[in-house]
Design a protein that fits this description.
Layout lengths: L2 H15 L4 H11 L3 H6 L2 H4 L2 H5 L4 E10 L5 E12 L5 E7 L5 H17 L5 E7 L8 H15 L8 E5 L5 H15 L22 H15 L9 E4 L4 H12 L3 E2 L1 E4 L2 E4 L6 H13 L5 H6 L4 E4 L10 E3 L9 H9 L4 E3 L8 H9 L3 E3 L1 H4 L2 H15 L5 H25 L6 H20 L3
Length: about 450
């Protein structure tokens, strides 16, 4: 069978077998369509049906999570863990608490994680987990009870050499702490089974900042290919959580100017730019008070608030989608290009819809897709695992330097792989090819398992 026919047969089988999982279908199609020249060059991939195996998780775990609120009412949520591929190492990927979480979302995130982790060159497999639980407006006690119930089941399936979860949307240091405490209590062991831990009991410096910092480092590498930098660039950032906050911080450090943030309710536009003092307000607003970004416009003069919109209509040089999947439509991509945007760098997972990706490809916009650009988070999670294994703690400067080196190496892998297979300058093809080959070759080595 020819490579193109083989790829299409796998895509058709995925859609038929898993109807309704739109995000998962989108993620699989985006990767597999890039791989035709690689599959054609190595028939062993077809003979061993690597594609058919790589799109099927090694294990999918679905479980009930009962918990009690402060009024004594009992609630039931669903918990998920998809252990997708362990060819390169223990499963690694975050835990997301959000009402939108379902099996299809977790599968899409886990599938993306395989290649993202591969690109870091660290010994990490791919996985993802979460629950359809909304942590907003819950007390600390309610969050603790939910996390303990969630971990009571999850603890059976994870371990420092099996599966090492981290945080994601809705899961920060507080939630990681509650889950780690329950795991330790149940298993009677203190191991690096979770990353994103508090710094004083096994966490790594730079871990909270890593995804945002890494995306900006990747953007800087893309701009260098044109002899340019972030100095003086007007940037729009979506979201206002952890990734967005540290994306803003690093852009400021590198001389850029950020004029937007957003949440699920709307977008703020600050023509004067978000400085360090304003960023401190956002951090306090989102991490401590769990408020809405609208309060930023009420706090600072000259700021516009646009209800129910995203920032992609704002004139800018660089765009950093840092909220959630599929937040940039074709119309949004067209608006960005029309307004002079020269770089789109994804801090969120798969934030650009397929039609928008194709449009960006046809323009001169530098495009850094998520599995490469936002790999900084899992990279530093891997560094946290190393520190836990060696019982060491590296300095902030050491970790930041390693993160910069990893992001630079990821960019080079993407550039080199794209050029090798006749797609010079196409970082989408480069990232997918580079990430896939390392995993696929390991799968060949391991036999039919």
């Amino acid at each position: 069978m020819k490579a193109k026919e083989h790829i299409q047969s796998v895509l058709d089988h995925v859609v038929k077998r898993d109807p309704g999982e739109r995000e998962f279908h989108q993620a699989v199609q985006e990767v597999l369509e890039s791989l035709e020249p690689v599959i054609a060059a190595k028939p062993a991939y077809i003979e061993a049906n690597i594609l058919g195996r790589i799109v099927e998780p090694e294990r999918m775990i679905l479980f009930r999570v009962p918990w009690q609120d402060d009024k004594g009412n009992v609630h039931v949520n669903r918990g998920f863990r998809v252990q997708f591929n362990s060819s390169l190492g223990p499963y690694k990927g975050g835990i997301r608490f959000h009402p939108s979480v379902n099996l299809g979302i977790i599968k899409f995130l886990g599938f993306e994680q395989i290649f993202k982790n591969s690109l870091t060159t660290l010994p990490l497999g791919g996985g993802k987990g979460g629950a359809d639980f909304d942590p907003k407006y819950k007390s600390d006690a309610e969050i603790m009870r939910f996390c303990q119930s969630f971990m009571t089941e999850l603890s059976r399936h994870i371990g420092a050499d099996t599966d090492v979860p981290a945080g994601d949307i809705g899961v920060g240091a507080r939630e990681i702490g509650f889950m780690f405490g329950q795991y330790k209590r149940l298993r009677n062991e203190f191991t690096g089974v979770l990353t994103g831990k508090n710094i004083n009991w096994g966490g790594s410096l730079i871990r909270p900042e890593a995804t945002g910092y890494g995306a900006v480092y990747f953007a800087q590498e893309m701009l260098r290919t044109r002899g340019d930098s972030l100095e003086g660039k007007i940037c729009v950032v979506s979201g206002s959580g952890n990734v967005a906050q540290y994306t803003v911080e690093k852009i400021l450090q590198l001389g850029g100017k950020v004029v937007s943030l957003s949440d699920s309710n709307g977008t703020i536009y600050d023509p004067d730019g978000i400085d360090e003092e304003k960023l401190k307000f956002v951090i306090e607003l989102k991490r401590i008070r769990y408020g809405r970004i609208k309060e930023y416009a009420e706090k600072f003069k000259g700021v516009e608030y646009h209800e129910g919109t995203r920032p992609w209509g704002i004139k800018c040089d660089c765009a950093f989608p840092s909220a959630t999947q599929n937040e940039i439509s074709l119309a949004d991509a067209q608006a960005l290009c029309h307004n002079g945007c020269c770089l789109l760098c994804e801090g969120a997972n798969m934030p650009t819809e397929p039609d928008a990706v194709h449009f960006v490809h046809s323009s001169r916009v530098l495009y850094g897709l998520a599995k490469a650009a936002n790999a900084g988070g899992v990279a530093v999670s891997g560094l946290e695992m190393s520190q836990n294994s060696m019982r060491l703690k590296w300095s902030r400067e050491e970790v930041d330097q390693k993160l910069q080196q990893i992001m630079k190496a990821i960019h080079k892998q993407c550039v080199d792989a794209a050029e090798e297979f006749g797609a010079k300058g196409d970082l989408v093809a480069g990232a997918n090819i580079a990430g896939f080959r390392r995993v696929a070759d390991a799968m060949l080595d391991h036999g039919v398992v």
